[in-house]
């Protein structure tokens, strides 16, 4: 749901609606304005709690697959659990108070976190290393999507040929767009470290807006936004056919 809403908001920005905030906060605000918005916000928050508990179970007991009990997979599951705990807390706080937790928009959060990190001993190296890590993660996400590595996690035998083709469209397109956004955000973090300028760091909203400032104009942002919508659809396929 969040990826679908962020992608839709990014499309609005691409076509001239500069007031939209294309990040998790903007997605929650958009959802709150819909009929039964309060119910959907609580349902979304509870679902994210479920995601956190699922990742916690993988960290404790292992995940599906031949190396699901390896230390690397368990550590990765623990990191993802922490991420979903944070996101669930943000969504549930918004549902209860209609105010964003964690300091507001993703852009402000990124700038504030970067400024605090730069003040630490060796802060430039820390921020630069984090930026490089995000770039690598974005590339890893995109390459795995293109190579259809998500097939390892899906029950392909339960899909028809057309369904599998549709899932591949959403998986490849959505994963590539998601990886590109990660990589771009990482590049801005590296620039912030090199220039010792926290304002160079960008959250999801500013990162997406940057795609519209390239020589390709708003059409690159349209493609990335459409990709995020595809990833939202792909997430529903994961919920339906993933091995757990």
Description of the structure:
The chain is mainly alpha-helical and 244 residues long. It folds into two domains: 24-104; 107-244, no CATH class. The protein has helices at residues 2-14, 24-32, 37-61, 71-97, 106-118, 123-146, 161-195, 204-211, 218-241. The longest helix is centred in the last third of the chain and has 35 residues, at 161-195. The chain is globular and about 50 Å long.
How are the SSEs placed, and which strands pair?
Elements: H1 2-14, H2 24-32, H3 37-61, H4 71-97, H5 106-118, H6 123-146, H7 161-195, H8 204-211, H9 218-241
Global structural class:
mainly alpha
Mean pLDDT: 88
Strand content: under 5%
| Apparent shape | globular
Count every beta strand, where a strand is a DSSP E run of 2 or more residues: 0
- Given the structure, what is the number of helices? 9
Helix-strand topology string: HHHHHHHHH
Helical content (DSSP H or I, runs of 4+): over 70%
N- and C-termini, Cα separation: 21 Å
Largest sheet: none
The residue ranges in which pLDDT falls below 50 over 5 or more consecutive positions are none
Protein name: Integral membrane protein
Transmembrane segments: 38-56, 77-96, 125-147, 167-190, 219-239
Domain DUF1206: 2-61, 78-148, 174-242
Keywords: Membrane, Transmembrane, Transmembrane helix
Q: What is the compact description of this entry?
A:
The protein has 244 residues and is an all-alpha fold. The protein has helices spanning 2-14, 24-32, 37-61, 71-97, 106-118, 123-146, 161-195, 204-211, 218-241.
Main attributes of the structure:
2 domains; 244 residues; globular; single chain; mainly alpha
